[in-house]
Amino acid sequence: MTTRTPLMAGNWKMNLNHLEAIAHVQKLAFALADKDYDAVEVAVLAPFTDLRSVQTLVDGDKLKIKYGAQDISAHDGGAYTGEISGPMLAKLKCTYVAVGHSERRQYHAETDEIVNAKVKAAYKHGLTPILCVGEELDVREAGNHVEHTLAQVEGGLKDLAAEQAESVVIAYEPVWAIGTGKVCGADDAQEVCAAIRGKLAELYSQELADKVRIQYGGSVKSGNVAEIMAKPDIDGALVGGASLDSDEFVKIVRFRDQ
Ligand SMILES: O=C(CO)COP(=O)(O)O
Prior knowledge:
Blueprint: E1 7-11, H1 18-32, E2 41-45, H2 48-60, E3 66-69, H3 86-91, E4 96-99, H4 102-107, H5 112-124, E5 128-133, H6 137-141, H7 145-156, H8 162-165, E6 169-172, H9 186-203, H10 206-211, E7 213-217, H11 225-229, E8 236-239, H12 246-253
The structure holds 1,3-dihydroxyacetonephosphate.
1,3-dihydroxyacetonephosphate (13P) binds at residues 11, 101, 173, 178-179, 217-220, 238-242.
């Protein structure tokens, strides 16, 4: 069995200006400095306007915190007003980029085709995509959550070579659990994450599937993270609201101490 380093990532969404971002990352770095946290990878997904500040801080202080963006254009450049390209994110030395977050799918009509194009754009420029998938409440209530989520995984990874797919991070985020305080039960999250790994084995190989990190996201807090992280197919958390409170996020990162 492959060991997968847990990835604990904070998705700040549209919060924290660049000055607040600096203060926040400094607090995280300080709180995480007293112990060696190599066993867990920590990342923040910041608004575009914060990335340069975060980069300067991380580079300057040689912080172990990784950072990335919350979206990427499918295009490399040109007349796409308001968009941010892969080359721009690569220049800022981003490690990660979230692709297909449910808020992008919902408010910006991102289809699996668009998400797939963005996943490819991320790889083209050396960024690791965090492919976000997950069902709405009506889909879960109808019992179609696994099928729905696996279709998003397949659509997002379409035509992607194994050399690329093996480094993808997949975030299972049931839409009804995002920002609602309704956490998906650990067993329910495990069911879908195991199914995602099964789909990767079917699309590529069991060996590749065993390497891919699958995160859970949706109302993760310090109080529920340990139970979620104890599940065999859950390799990290994508944390929204609770990642804006540095003390709380540090507790989430240190779930093993609980
Ligand atoms: O969407 C999420 C992370 O990407 C989850 O958000 P919350 O943790 O606020 O529910």
